[in-house]
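Example 3.2
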Amino acid sequence: MSRHHKNLTLDAMNDTWDEIGKQSRKLEQRIIEARAAAIEDAVRIAKEKIAQAQRENERRMANAIRDLEDKTNKRLADLNRRHTENLQRVANQIYDEMNQGFDDLSKVLENEVDNLNGRIDDMAKWVKSNLAKVDENIRQLQRDTNQRFNQQQQQIDSLQLSIREIYDRYHDEATMARDVAKDMTTLLQVVCENHPVKRYAPAELSEIQAHISDLLNSNYPAASIIAVADGIIRDILKMKEKTILEKTKHDQMLQQTKIRLTAVLEVIAANTNLTIEHDDDTASIATDYWTDDAYTPILKKMQDIERQLSTEEIDYLLSVEQIADLLKAVESLNIEGIGLMQKAISKAMQSQDRAEITLDIVNAMIRQGYVVKDENGTDAFDYMGGREESDQREGVFAILQNPNTGEEITVLLRPNADDKTNCLDIHIDNPHQPITEQQLRRSMERVREEMQHSGYNPGPIEVPADGGNQVIPQMQSGAQMRKKGAAQKLRTSL
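Structure, written as tokens:
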């Protein structure tokens, strides 16, 4: 029995890989340019948001001071005022440091690809490394924030007087206890009205409310009421501190993440179509197409994160931990997106490479007297069918006929699983007479020699796993070869 099917390995041309490298470097430059503008805008917006948050914090504190002065004991109001002013100074220092931190982050992001040396495939490693730096930057800023408030706590403690000192004008403990309880309740009300306590210190608030309820419904003697109220007032002030602390942390994490998101999203959105420049030709390729529709989901996920971070009610929807998780998601999507850009360029150029190689083979065989098979006015020379008919992401085939002998030679150049080498399948048949082993070998060598003359370096002829003894009807019909799903069907057969 004659053997109808053989294959051999064919490396992509070296100049193809050189060109892929050139296109990768051009992509890298476009990424740098897109990121630079995006980062500049993102940092500007982040600073505006922080300034807004700072002003809002100052307004809340000022309102709280005024409200308490109107409603409580003057000395308690004075204590609260000094306490609030100290907190405000610390918060302002932290917000000022945030702006510097944003500038530092922007420098990190702008220089993120400096060490790639034209190798875009190194981007994933660099981004992973940089993520660790960004995370450490955020952790350090948060540690600095905690440290600032811890230092402030010492000043706060030095300001706190005992309740008996504040209310020392009272000689009647019962009256004193009544007024202390009233001022304690008013202090809590003022703090809650002017600061987002429910968002940033809910556990502390619930505990204080429970203690106040117990105290007001108790039959404690006056001295006990005063002592318990003293502790509750201190807890209220500490709750206010925590609220402001956590709010600054939240503002910091939110704006850092928004800067990072903007830098990444700008690049992802700008590269849904990639430009390939070669010699004097310029081609635009759809990133989604060449990545089998894997790119658009990346963009949609990024846009979804953007929506989450842009929600007006953000204070009530996302915690610092949740924002940190979104930051990690942004980094992962960044790595994936850049990898897909590289994949799209590589696959598109390799597809072009396969088309050119197959054309060279066809022209070489034509010079030997073969013709491209005509099927009802359509040349049997096309892309294999994949997810669509005549899919450029799949292999390229040509069916050639010898008018004198009736011999048909089908050549199919398809990508191997590594996406770096190609497999050349050769199917030979003669519908009029059996093909001898000698004839088969001669025809195979003829194809191989013509490839070498065209400058290619094909590997040795190999017998497929099935022995190559059967006719493959699919490889005898251009209409079948270009049909949707044909490539997968043929891979199963081969």
